[in-house]
Amino acid sequence: MSNFWSIYIIAIVVINIAGCAALLFFTRKKKESSTQGKTTGHVYDGIEEYDNPLPRWWLWMFYITIIFSVIYLVLYPGLGKFQGVLGWSQVNQYNEEVAKADEQFMPMYEKYAAMSVEELQNKPEALDMGQSIFANTCFGCHGADGRGALGFPDLTDNDWLYGGTPEQIKKSIVDGRRGLMPAWEATLGEQGVSEVIHYVLSKNNAERSFREELVEAGETKYNQFCAACHGKDLTGNVALGAANLADTVWLHGGSISMIKNTVANGIQANMPAHKDILGEEKIHLVTAYVYSLSRDEQVQALEDGGQK
Ligand code: HEC
Ligand code: HEC
How far is the CA of 278 from the centre of ligand 2 (A)? Predict the structure, then answer.
């Protein structure tokens, strides 16, 4: 807030309170006996308006309200930029409450921090704590159940941009991730983008048939421009966060027009770093929880002979 607006607001508030006080002061001075029983002369539908002084109890309520507002504005923020002598703020109050809760839970956090993410899979209380941290911190982007949305990865499947081991998941949370995919429209042109997508989809969805010459032209371009990040076999690269293009999971939309849009315009995705927001102990618990979400699928995959 600029100084001008701050002073403007302070002036309005002070003038209003002073105005109320003045009004009250002058009404009070009116001699009680002088007007008692007289009418103001207004008559409406046979109802006359008396000019009696305001009742005492009502006046006192008014005084108390004014005194309260003055005390309040001295103690708490309300007058422009003035923060109030108590220094209270919503943020401070929130931080104090979080600090109190942390102090209470810290022994538990520390106990679980000493165990590995795999060990925590058999500790339901630890996973519950991880879940409540997730619900507070992550759900806005990944959904309450971790299933994500367009552009926000599903954390419950076994498809990972950056890898699904406990270490890789933890690194995603601690340092955050930046998914950068260049825009290709300028380099390849509309025709080139279309060809390369034909090639990708021909590999991705073998049941559909595509025009042979488009697929061939696309293959050359894919190897030249895309393979460095997405791999010759299209399976992606967890070190770069380059998506797997050989599966049916499309983070940015799987319709042909959406894929075209992705390739033509590129992607800039951002998973924020949480090391300063949550701290090591809580990150450990939320990692265990996220790991548990996809574990059923991972176990299933192992039983199926290691195939995804
Ligand atoms: C510099 C590395 C790089 C190159 C080169 C690259 N990509 Fe990507 N691509 C990425 C990354 C990283 C992502 C994941 C973005 C994210 O974080 O969501 C991605 C995502 C995609 C997606 C979205 C996948 C999904 O699940 O929605 C498509 C489609 C895609 N790339 C196609 C291509 C094609 C086609 C080319 C070649 C013309 C190409 N990419 C070249 C890095 C690259
Ligand atoms: C502001 C939105 C936002 C918040 C909050 C957020 N994330 Fe993310 N997260 C993302 C985005 C976007 C990506 C994908 C990044 C990319 O495409 O490169 C991502 C990626 C991830 C990944 C990597 C997924 C993969 O496929 O490798 C993990 C793990 C993850 N988030 C966990 C969490 C956890 C746990 C929290 C809470 C502590 C959290 N995220 C909070 C937006 C968010």
Answer: 14
Fold observed for domain 90-176+273-303: Cytochrome Bc1 Complex; Chain D, domain 2 (1.10.760)
CATH no., domain 180-271: 1.10.760.10
Average pLDDT, the chain: 89
Cβ–ligand 2 contact at 242 (below 6 Å): no
pLDDT at 35: 61
Task: Tell me, yes or no, if the two domains 90-176+273-303 and 180-271 fold the same way.
Answer: yes
* Structure confidence by residue, pLDDT tens digits, 212-239: 899 999 999 999 999 999 999 999 999 9
CB distance 176 to ligand 1 below 6 Å: no
The answer to whether the CB of 173 is under 6 A from ligand 2 is yes
Q: Are 202 and 256 in contact (CB under 8 A)?
A: no
Could you report the per-residue pLDDT of 179-224, keeping only the tens digit for each?
999 999 999 999 999 999 999 999 887 677 788 899 999 999 999 9
Domain coordinates in residue numbering, the chain: 3-75, 90-176+273-303, 180-271
Q: Are strands 177-181 and 47-50 parallel, antiparallel or unpaired?
A: unpaired
d(CA 110, CA 12): 52
User: Which of 230, 237, 271 to probe ligand 1 with, by most ligand atoms within 8 A of CB?
Assistant: 230
